[in-house]
Design goal:
Elements lengths: L1 H17 L4 H27 L14 H9 L11 H5 L8 H4 L1
Length: 101
């Protein structure tokens, strides 16, 4: 992430220094650009340092659809059948050392 911020800031400075715009426009663009970068960095800092106030709740096994899965133990349950598009994306099984010999 630090590399992205470095390239963002150096690219903006190069744009201001090497562009052929009037000095007044460079001053206003610099103020707007650097305030935007400061807001961006403040947002990143906030997201990194904030505390989660709400706990993440996992799906309990007491939910009706999960009880159906556990009661039927995967036989005939629509939730336990793998989707065809996911099955077709599966990688081939790895061979064991016994298969090589």
């Amino acid at each position: 992430m630090a590399i992205n911020i470095y390239y963002l800031i150096t690219g903006f400075i190069k744009l201001l220094l090497h562009s052929h715009i009037k000095i007044v426009a460079k001053v206003f663009l610099g103020m707007l650009g650097f305030s935007g970068i400061a807001i961006y960095l403040a947002g990143i800092t906030y997201l990194v340092l904030r505390k989660n106030t709400e706990a993440t709740h996992l799906l309990a096994l007491t939910a009706p659809e999960n009880q159906q899965m556990t009661n039927e133990q995967g036989h005939g349950s629509i939730y336990s059948l793998p989707r065809e598009d996911i099955v077709s994306m599966q990688l081939p099984q790895r061979s064991t050392p016994a298969d090589i010999d």
